[in-house]
Amino acid sequence: MNLETILTPAELPALARRDLRGTACVVFDILRATSTFVTALQNGAQAVVPVSEISEAVAFRKNMPDTLLAGERDGVKIRAAQSGGVDFDFGNSPREFRPEKVRGKTIVSTTTNGTRALRACAGAKIILASSFLNLAATTKFLNASPPEEILLVCAGTGEGVALEDVLAAGALAGLVGGEFSDATEIASRTFLYAKNDLAAVIAGSQNARRLLAIPELRADVAFCSQRDIFKTVAADGADGAIRLV
Amino acid sequence: MNLETILTPAELPALARRDLRGTACVVFDILRATSTFVTALQNGAQAVVPVSEISEAVAFRKNMPDTLLAGERDGVKIRAAQSGGVDFDFGNSPREFRPEKVRGKTIVSTTTNGTRALRACAGAKIILASSFLNLAATTKFLNASPPEEILLVCAGTGEGVALEDVLAAGALAGLVGGEFSDATEIASRTFLYAKNDLAAVIAGSQNARRLLAIPELRADVAFCSQRDIFKTVAADGADGAIRLV
């Protein structure tokens, strides 16, 4: 089985020209979109719908009033003044998505790079949203019915690579095994040279340093660095909603 | 000093929007463009002019008949039938650029990714073409007059990352030191998890495997994997010609 890796968001547009029908895509946006999605589903949410823009989230709730909205700008939960009159229910911190709040709910979440990465995988055999929190579960799922090819997709930040996404991709590659592309080899070696000190290496990444500087969000870094606390496997459906599989 | 890294050619177009006036760019196209340029200059070539297309090389020689032409397609030196009547003087193997052939000459070399990476750095304070062959010399040059920022540019292959370029970028980052971006951290850790076995790791890269399968070119892989056999430092001038500095 071939394991390829997309290291940077700049490589995503080229995916539109590829036939992904035999490919399982695994998307990582460790700090924090996919970690948050996995946590919400683990805690009983029915579905998480990632969108890019605040206006998309607001429009979604107009059609489905029971929906909860998640998103933040500059580390602060989106307020009515930013969204044309709607206070959002959550920020983007996975620790907010507690069972009593999310059980049975559909959550629309605004996240730029996570959404972009998931959408770029359109047409794949399956699209999984993964994280350190459910890496072993994701691996087990892939090994149970191996696809022709696995494409590990690092969502990144803005136009650049995010170290923590590459670490997760490298960790998964090592668990799954197979023929590594150069990019997968890079992710794997990056992880192997970090694994004995993983939480500290993640904490040194650009995204982590940004979060660690915001008192209410700093605990998110340690939360998202936890390995295999959940057995959840999350897949993006043709309707754009992520659910348990 | 900040050390940033461009891992993939997909990130190059975004450089056009950046102010690089305080930045030293270091371009790596290990297999084989920058290794070849450095070797040719070390062996006495006056200048190497990288171009993308065969037609550009041929046009250059029309204006400067003393120019030598380098380039290959599918591992074979370019022949008259492919270039509108001009047999090229060299392929792209660094081992061809021997002192008695190149001394005092200007060489025009067709190389897609190397040329693209060098051109994407236009406007930088300085643009160096580097390789494992002259990594210590390049480091010494940078440390002698540290720029505000260093941008390590991995030329890659086609639209994808090339492992050997990232290994070289990571090795240079470790020698120069400074504040690493996430991408530089990835390159550095990839190198650190390969350094005890560097030639073998390079030999396992996608480009190396392609070269190793061609009998006349297989020795290029070991040649380009040699550390610091040259004291040469090579810089791309405003006229698009690479010369010793």
Structure description:
The structure is a homodimer of 245-residue chains. Chain A has 245 residues and is an alpha/beta fold. In chain A, 37% of the residues lie in helices and 19% in strands. Chain A is built from eleven helices and twelve strands. In chain A, the strands form three sheets. The first copy, chain A, has a seven-stranded mixed β-sheet, with helices on both faces. In chain A, a hairpin with a 5-residue loop joins strand 11 and strand 12. In chain A, helix 6 crosses helix 7 and helix 7 crosses helix 8. The first copy, chain A, is globular and about 50 Å long. The interface between A and B is medium-sized, with 25 and 26 residues.
Compact overview of the structure:
The structure is a homodimer of 245-residue chains. Chain A is an alpha/beta fold and 245 residues long.
Distance between the termini of chain A: 22 Å
Mean pLDDT of chain A: 96
Shape of chain A: globular
User: How much helical structure, as a percent, in the residues of chain A?
Assistant: 25-40%
